[in-house]
Each structure stands twice: as C-alpha cells, then as structure tokens.
Amino acid sequence: MSQTTVSLVLSGKAPxxxxxxxxxxxxxxxxxxxxxxNAAARALRSGTASAVGLVVRDVTHPFFGRTLRGAQQAAxxxxxxxxxxxDDYAGGGGDSSVQGLSEGVIDGFLFFAAKVPRSLxxxxxxxxxxxxxxxxxxxxxxxxxxxxxxxxxEHLHALGHRRIGHFRSSAGGQTFGRRHxxxxxxxxxxxxxPDEQVTGxxxxxxxxxxxxxxxxxxxxxxxTAFLCDDDLLAAGMVAAANELGxxxxxxxxxxxxDDLDLARLTSxxxxxVRFDPEALGAAAFELLHARLQGKRPKNRVxxxxxxxxxxxAG
Amino acid sequence: MSQTTVSLVLSGKAPxxxxxxxxxxxxxxxxxxxxxxNAAARALRSGTASAVGLVVRDVTHPFFGRTLRGAQQAAxxxxxxxxxxxDDYAGGGGDSSVQGLSEGVIDGFLFFAAKVPRSLxxxxxxxxxxxxxxxxxxxxxxxxxxxxxxxxxEHLHALGHRRIGHFRSSAGGQTFGRRHxxxxxxxxxxxxxPDEQVTGxxxxxxxxxxxxxxxxxxxxxxxTAFLCDDDLLAAGMVAAANELGxxxxxxxxxxxxDDLDLARLTSxxxxxVRFDPEALGAAAFELLHARLQGKRPKNRVxxxxxxxxxxxAG
DNA sequence: CGTAGTACGCTGTACGTATGACCTCTCCCC
DNA sequence: GGGGAGAGGTCATACGTACAGCGTACTACG
Lengths: 314, 314
Known about the structure:
2 copies of one chain form a homodimer. The first copy, chain A, has 10 helices and 12 strands. Chain A has helices at about 5-10, 20-35, 40-45, 60-75, 95-100, 145-160, 175-190, 205-215, 230-245, 275-290; strands at about 50-55, 80-85, 110, 130, 140-145, 165-170, 200, 225-230, 255-260, 270-275, 300, 305.
C-alpha cells in the first residue's frame, strides 16, 4: 500500500482514484495505528494551514470575549484553528515577532481593533479582515453605531430629555467617533449646541469610570440624561449616582452600549444599545474565509437594537 | 552563500561557525529581501513549533479573559504563539478534530478548566498543564480557594453573622467544591449545621443569577449573609436585593469571589476574595514551558486576598 | 617543510505530506 | 484481435528548514 494512496484517502480525494475497499482498509489502519496527519508537513507542502491569526490589543473587555467566541466558533466549524496574537500594531502590523513566527502557519489575519494605523499592511501578503474599523483598502465588518446612537437619542428625546450629556470612552477610534457624531447630530437637529453640553472621558475600568462619572454628576449644569459610550461607563455612572444619592432615572437617565451582562446587574438595570458580538466575530471569520478562497466578500455592517430598562424608564 | 550558512546565522548559532562579517551580510540581505523564516518548515524539520494550545470551554467569563491575557503575555515573551482551542473535552481531549489539526504545530497544551475528566490523556504525547483542577497525573496551577473562603467566612463571623447561606455556581468542579467545603467547615467549627442553611445554585449570567437570588432572598429563613461563588452571582444577589428593597449589608451581607471589575460597579460595591488571574495564566504557561524543556516543574497554588467593601461593612 | 589544529563554509539528506506524471490491468467495441 | 478508455494504484519530486558530516584554506609550530 503506497503512501500516495493513503494521502488520497485521508484527504478525501479518493472517489474515482481509489476503490472503496482499499479506502476502508486505509481508514481502518489509520485508526488502528492512531495516525494523525502532521499539520506542519501539510502546511509546508500545500502552502495553506487552515489557521487564522486573531490580532488584538487587549482581551479583557467582555464585549471582546464574546466577539472572540463568535470568531472561534465559526472558524472551528470550518475546520480552522485560531491563533491568538497580542500586538499593538506599533510597527504597522508587519514586523511583530509573533507574526513572523507564524509565517507559513497562518493563512490570514483578523484584526480586532477600534483603531487601525494607516501604515497597516497585509502581513506577508496574507489577507486581512478588519473588525470595527472602516476603511477602503481591506474588507471589514463593523457595528451600526449610527443607527444605535440615533435610536438611543430618540428614546431619550421621547422621554422629554433635551439636555443630554455624553460620557465618552477615552479609547478613541471610529466606534466612539460615530457615537459622538450621532449624539451631536441629534442635538443639533433639535436646536441644541453640542459644545454647550456636559461631556467627559473615561477608560474602561470601574475605578476610572466611577471617578469620572462623579465629576460629571456634580457639574453645576448637570444634564437630565447621559449617553455613555459603553455599559462599563454607564454602570460607573449609575454607581456614582447611587453613591451621591442622585436617583436614576429620576435625577439622571443613563443609556449605555453593548448590553453586557453587567447591564442587568446595576440598580437600576441599564437601558442600552445591544449588538451581537458573536455575530460580529463570526462574520469577520466568514469574510476572511471567503477571501482565502479567492472571493471578494462584501463588507458588512451589523444592526443594533435598543433595549429599554430601568435606567431611563423608571 | 549557502543555505546552511543562512540558517546558522538566522537561528543565532553563528558564533564559532560563521564569521561576523558574513553573518552581517546575511542579516542585511535577509532584511533587504524581506525574508521570513517559514514556521511550517521549521516545525516539520525540528519537531518543535514554539506554539502552545490553549484549550477552553468558554471564553466569555471575565475572569477567564484575564487569565488568558496572562498566559498569552507570558507565552509571547518567551517567543511562543498561543493557539486557541474550544473543546468540551467530551472525547477525553484527544479526539478533537481541532487538536488533530494542530498535530505537529502545537508543542503542548494548557487546559483551562474547572472540570477535567479522568479520561483526559496527553494528546499525541504532548505535555499538558492544567489550570484550576488538581490531580496527580499532570502538573497544575490553581487558586487558594480554601484560604480565600476561610478569610471571607471569618470576616462575616467577626461582623456577627452566624447564619450564612451559600449561593453556589451550577458549573460544579473543584473550584466551587473547595468553596463549599470551606463554607461548611466554618459553620461546623462554630456549631452550625451546614445542611440547615439556605443554599441555591445559578449559572454565570445575569438573568439566572438575579432570578435565583430573588428566590434565596425570599426564603422564610433568610440568613443574614451569603457567600457567593463568584462576583457575578454576588452582583445578581445585590441587584435582586435592591429590587426587593432589602438593604445591603443591613438586611443581608454579600461576599463574592474574584474581584471582577463588576465588584466596584454594584450598589453597594462588593466585598470579595481577590485572585490574580494574570498571574494564574502566566504561571500555567511557565509550567508548560518548563516541561517542554524537560524539567519537572512544581505545581503551584496562588494566594488570595480579601477585599472589604460596602456589601458587608456598611 | 610537513603536519596538526582551527576557523569557516558547503553538500547532502531528512522531516511528512500533496500532486503531476506514469504504469498496469481489465473491459468493451468495432 | 487490436486499440482505446477508464479504473486503480505507484513513483518521484518538491515544499523550506535543520543538522551531521565533510571539505578547504589558512595559521602555528616543531
């Protein structure tokens, strides 16, 4: 029995080349001997490895964890492996030692990023899909922050809120830029000047967000509602309000983004703009998968959904 | 210039074999041509790939995200790549198609698990390190849940609590078994019968934990304090208490585990047993790294620290 | 001047798989 | 009965690297 025959059988190319009797014999023997094809040799010979690299700055934000799960699941259903790469893109994405290490083992890359430097190039000529950053050079998947923001603002407007502050993420990036633009556009459309509204920044951790929220809430011109770039910030604001004895939503209404688990755990629970992070991750992988097969996939923008809870409508 | 010389230079084995002049020339040329060593070929030839597999059931719990980050960072500092593998170990860990895919590309495995089946074997003879599950066959790293639980219970005891309930994770596994044992031991040591105390189970999501907590809090024999297996459960209990108008900590005191970011965002913030998940992940990788170098590393148990906040001491 | 020693470099082969080209047999049809 | 087609199978080679072993030239030294 030749090695070629075995290869043909195990890679599923048997029909028309190998009789089903020998194919069965091969499979039986493979099981018997505990044979496992060597991925390195396969990758070397075929130039493709069924593995994608997931490049990311920080793994700890809960939204990211769920996106990751979506990507991982889609990949594993397609028989692919996900390689996790931590990288701050400082060198334009191509020089990272880790990415160098993966040469020949990684077929393509998923960049999970709020910010992508212009200098980013496809590493080693491998295809790239970008998550949450829209640009023209590479395929991308992103969330419909515009729609979500508009829905949130209209909700607040319908409840009678006119002076609405913005509690912003200090992370920057397109995602939060869109939310800010949507917020400003709504105010202008209703004759308010965004520049006169109360705004503030915070990082995505409890200590910072509570401290920043405390300041915003003690502002002499406190608005009647706050749009918060994220549920973590919104939760920080609710915590600060509770601490200061300000009623939510009576004293101040709060809206977040993402519908993290956290959103149901605050008192009161958060009104928030929900996205589907699993779908985001899965879509990103699917685009990459399509590119790997030579197709030219369409960029995608995933919808949002406003979830109303106690932090706005008491 | 021969290919051997290039290999020698680029793998850092030049001293004593290659003159520094040619070595420099090689490096210059490599840079010039944008040469990147092919990881697949290297792995095939040398039998080692500088990559470790991270096997995990679920990526979304925040504690896990931070553990992952610790492992990823340690690995990348050691020049290793982390491959993410989602697997429920149903087949004993060895039959997973994904693990098969990685054959020859993965040097060893990190199992992040609260439960590890006895049937788990080292896949393909590759070394394994287990996180948060102690057993005798493989090296492991785990948290000192006993110490943390004892500290939490003594804290409650010092505040005068005698009837203390246990809000348990339905995930099961050693981690939570240790917490339950510690809880029961404390009660017995003070003349209480654990079997007479109020206990309940919940999964790690907001909806379940709030619903389960609501039931516990409405129990006719409500204890004066609850030990909760995790901050998510504790936060659910605080949310339920707020909803029911039960004062925390006046009506019921609440202690959690993990010191998630969440712990500072509830009202009041949570008293909790803190661990260092980054250290856990890093330690796990270090053990595996040592095993890969033929050493026999010592198992590790990482310490805890009680953080007192408003949910127990008003 | 011959020889050993050393510094430097190259040749050849193996890792395990995929694949194009080739071989051999059988069957069928004119 | 000769020739073509097709099914079933094998040979040889290439992927890019690592490494053992083998030159080759130059230096040192008796």
